[in-house]
Amino acid sequence: NNRINIAIDGPAGAGKSTVARLVANQLSYIYVDTGAMYRAVTWFLTKHGVGPEVPDQVLEHVQHMLIELTPDHGGQRVWVNGEDVTSYIRTPQVNGLVSRYAQIEGLRTHLVQLQRQMALRKGVVMDGRDIGTTVLPDAEVKIFMTATVKERALRRFNEMNDAERTSLEQLEKDISMRDTLDEQREISPLRRAEDAILLDTTEMNIHQVVEKIVSLCRSQM
Ligand code: C5P
């Protein structure tokens, strides 16, 4: 059986992480959530008081940051300099800032390099915004997952617990804002690679999306 790499891209809240994790489990592959890396950087830098408006300082701090991803019950844990930050990187504060740090060219170059290393031996399911276009242009299977903004906001809403929950309207606004920033940035913006399969999941459930992707993968193995 031929080991392959699988790239899953798409806008915020399309269900990429859930689907990528399940696909990886079915194939016994490694799941890499690249959004978690941008989030870990965001958490670390806000903790050190370094904002996205000072890219030089951002790059300086990132040199002293060891980011590790480890498998965890079919999911993934995120570590920064040995500290488990998994539960710190999904706060509204990080949500609101991550796309601004993600616009910094040197930071992207650095993270892309780490991501490519993780995929060298193949057998990786990687999700993000620029995997099919920039990180792994040679991935054997490329998926671009979308759903309407309304549907994506609703999915996020249903995932949240009572403490985290904000209004559906606010969620829609946040998601649209991140979409715009991600699509319009100069360096590797969010877009479908020419050879990526477009999967509109608005009317599909998770099980159907996973089945579809796994069968596409098996046909390439
Ligand atoms: O996937 P997730 O929503 O956790 O990603 C958070 C943010 O990280 C995105 O909105 C985007 O700004 C950035 N990101 C990116 N490139 C990736 C993955 C995430 O720019 N490959």
Automatic annotation (TrEMBL):
CDD domains: CMPK
Residue ranges of domain Cytidylate kinase in the record: 6-217
SUPFAM superfamilies noted in UniProt: P-loop containing nucleoside triphosphate hydrolases
Catalysed reactions, semicolon-separated: dCMP + ATP = dCDP + ADP; CMP + ATP = CDP + ADP
Main location: cytoplasm
GO BP: nucleobase-containing small molecule interconversion; pyrimidine nucleotide metabolic process
Enzyme class: transferase
Tree of life domain: Bacteria
Keywords linked to the UniProt accession: ATP-binding, Cytoplasm, Kinase, Nucleotide-binding, Transferase
Binding site for ATP: G10, P11, A12, G13, A14, G15, K16, S17, T18
Presence of the UniProt keyword Cytoplasm in the record: yes
GO molecular function terms noted in the UniProt entry: ATP binding; CMP kinase activity; dCMP kinase activity
Subcellular location as annotated: Cytoplasm
InterPro entries for this protein: Cytidylate_kin, Cytidylate_kinase_dom, P-loop_NTPase
GO cellular component: cytosol
Entry EC number(s): 2.7.4.25
PANTHER family in alphabetical order: CYTIDYLATE KINASE, CYTIDYLATE KINASE/PANTOATE-BETA-ALANINE LIGASE
UniProt-listed HAMAP family: Cytidyl_kinase_type1
Family according to the record: Belongs to the cytidylate kinase family. Type 1 subfamily.
Protein name: Cytidylate kinase
The encoding gene: cmk
